[in-house]
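Meet the record:
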Amino acid sequence: MSDHEIQLFEDLAFKYMDNLYSRAILLARSAERAEILVQQTYAVAFGVFQHFDKNSDFDKWLNEILMNVYANMCFYVHESAEN
């Protein structure tokens, strides 16, 4: 990823951080889990940012990643509880 793309990601990530955290709190129902959810979401988003259509809505794209990360976390917790 180019320096320009990294800077663009950082700018967009910072711009939407409060929105993302608010959604994460609603899903996770605790500040600690919400922080983990946000960190994981940003890690995934950064890893696939080169595929993001720069003409698309970053907030919506980030929310889709958040929901997928949350679903995966729930699945992992559910699977761990069964074992």
Summary: The chain has one domain: 3-82. The radius of gyration is 14 Å. The mean pLDDT is 90. The helical segments are 3-15, 17-28, 31-48, 58-82.
